[in-house]
Amino acid sequence: MSIHMSYLKREHARLDAEIERASRERRPDEILIARLKTLKLAVKDQMAACRESSGDSRAA
Questions:
Q1: Model's pTM, two decimal places?
Q2: Could you tell me what percentage of the chain is helix, strand and coil, using 3-state DSSP and rounding each to the nearest 5?
Q3: Which H, E and C letters describe 30-46, residue by residue?
Q4: One short Pfam family name for this protein (predicted)?
Q5: Buried-state track 20-44, b at ≥16 Cβ within 10 A, e below 16
Q6: pLDDT along the chain (60 residues), means of 10
């Protein structure tokens, strides 16, 4: 696994944890959560692009 892919997986997990934390707040910041979800989706897209370029077609 490439260093870049490792970074993307860690970033995806970090964003997921941050979304969970923000969602558990007494008054969740819906705008922040939406931004985090957008970033998480962008990271997932980058992971898919890396897989395609390396010839690995496994799902995320």
A1: 0.83
A2: 75, 0, 25
A3: HHHHHHHHHHHHHHHHH
A4: DUF465
A5: eebeeeeeeeeeebeebeebbeebe
A6: 92 98 97 98 96 71
